[in-house]
Automatic annotation (TrEMBL):
<protein>
    <submittedName>
        <fullName>Oxidoreductase</fullName>
    </submittedName>
</protein>
<dbReference type="GO" id="GO:0046491">
    <property type="term" value="P:L-methylmalonyl-CoA metabolic process"/>
</dbReference>
<dbReference type="GO" id="GO:0004493">
    <property type="term" value="F:methylmalonyl-CoA epimerase activity"/>
</dbReference>
<dbReference type="InterPro" id="IPR051785">
    <property type="entry name" value="MMCE/EMCE_epimerase"/>
</dbReference>
<dbReference type="Pfam" id="PF00903">
    <property type="entry name" value="Glyoxalase"/>
</dbReference>
<dbReference type="InterPro" id="IPR029068">
    <property type="entry name" value="Glyas_Bleomycin-R_OHBP_Dase"/>
</dbReference>
<dbReference type="InterPro" id="IPR037523">
    <property type="entry name" value="VOC_core"/>
</dbReference>
<dbReference type="GO" id="GO:0046872">
    <property type="term" value="F:metal ion binding"/>
</dbReference>
<feature type="domain" description="VOC">
    <location>
        <begin position="141"/>
        <end position="259"/>
    </location>
</feature>
<feature type="domain" description="VOC">
    <location>
        <begin position="8"/>
        <end position="123"/>
    </location>
</feature>
<dbReference type="InterPro" id="IPR004360">
    <property type="entry name" value="Glyas_Fos-R_dOase_dom"/>
</dbReference>
<keyword id="KW-0479">Metal-binding</keyword>
Length: 312
């Protein structure tokens, strides 16, 4: 899509009942840095990223995905996208305007076809960041987010038609059919993936580390701290990235990864990858089998925030 207006993934915002426990996990263990905090809300940055923050935690009585935020190049692009969505009948949460969150900027929010709140913004102030050093096992940046949907084709069509995402690859099973669609909004193999699930929910959020050594050191640090590793370490075929999947204190799956493939968007042709072939799930052969129990855990809890905009 030549007129794609989305440029990249900015941040993922979560609401959590046990705010203090979640905050401690994402800072002391996961390796994110608090950059702004108010009563019951904290903005967490990745040291290697110019984004003001990559995760926002908000205290709430119910666990939910508050929103997913994407970047646009200019305020004019924000206005253009908002106009297109409104014309197409997409429900806007608010019209474009000045953002009141960390870093400011100009943006708007809307509901996707499944009821998730999506934000698109431009002119957000960049953060002073730094190069992550050798053996420093903290996230460089936010890599991608994966969503559960009971209707993959419908969700995929929304993001392709309205936001300009393109299909990179598909995971399939001989009996279960299509299980996951990998979608991109830039040269990164995927910034978004849509997984087959029984209900709308968050599948996982992934964070990029500096390299394989740092990724393994981070995996080990979490293991030594007693954090439950549900799958990994291994290396996927689709995207060619490493993976270690953990559960945060509220049961959200979070991933350490590195070396996610970059594609030539002018020449890339999507492929179907059969997950019944073990090397598709894990090229290295080091990860535990992805069994029925892991599948159920990846479904997560039903998202209670659908078609309900977060208060902040």
């Amino acid at each position: 899509m030549t007129d794609r207006l989305i440029t990249h993934l900015r941040h993922v915002d979560l609401a959590v009942p046990d705010y203090d426990r979640q905050r401690d996990f994402y800072t002391a263990l996961w390796g994110l840095t608090p950059v702004a905090e108010d009563d019951g809300i904290v903005f967490l940055a990745a040291e290697g990223s110019p984004e003001q923050y990559v995760v926002r935690l908000r205290k709430d009585a119910e666990k939910r995905l508050d929103l997913i935020a994407y970047g646009a190049a200019t305020p004019a692009d924000v206005d253009t996208l908002a106009g297109r969505l409104a014309t197409a009948g997409v429900r806007l949460v608010n019209e474009p305007g000045t953002l009141q969150t960390a870093g400011g900027g100009y943006g708007f929010r809307f509901f996707d076809v499944d009821g998730r709140t999506i934000e698109v913004s431009a002119d957000v102030a960049t953060r002073q960041h730094r190069a992550i050093e050798e053996r420093e096992s903290i996230p460089v940046r936010l890599s991608h987010v994966v969503l559960n949907s009971p209707d993959i084709p419908r969700t995929q069509a929304f993001y392709e038609q309205h936001l300009g995402f393109a299909l990179s690859d598909t995971l399939v099973h001989p009996y279960a059919g299509e299980l996951m669609k990998f979608l991109r909004c830039n040269a990164q193999h995927h910034s978004l993936a849509i997984a087959k699930g029984p209900h709308v929910s968050l599948h996982h959020v992934s964070f990029e580390l500096r390299g394989v050594d740092e990724y393994l050191r981070g995996t080990g640090r979490l293991l030594r701290a007693g954090t439950r590793l549900i799958w990994g370490p291994g290396r996927h075929l689709a995207g060619d990235n490493t993976f270690s999947y953990f559960l945060d204190p509220h049961g959200n799956t979070v991933e350490y990864t590195t070396e996610l493939a970059l594609v030539d968007e002018d020449t890339w042709q999507p492929s179907d990858h059969d997950v019944s072939q073990i090397s598709v799930q894990d090229q290295w052969g080091t990860a535990n089998p992805f069994d029925d129990q892991l599948v159920k855990e990846s479904f997560n809890d039903v998202d209670r925030g659908l078609f309900v905009a977060p208060p902040v």
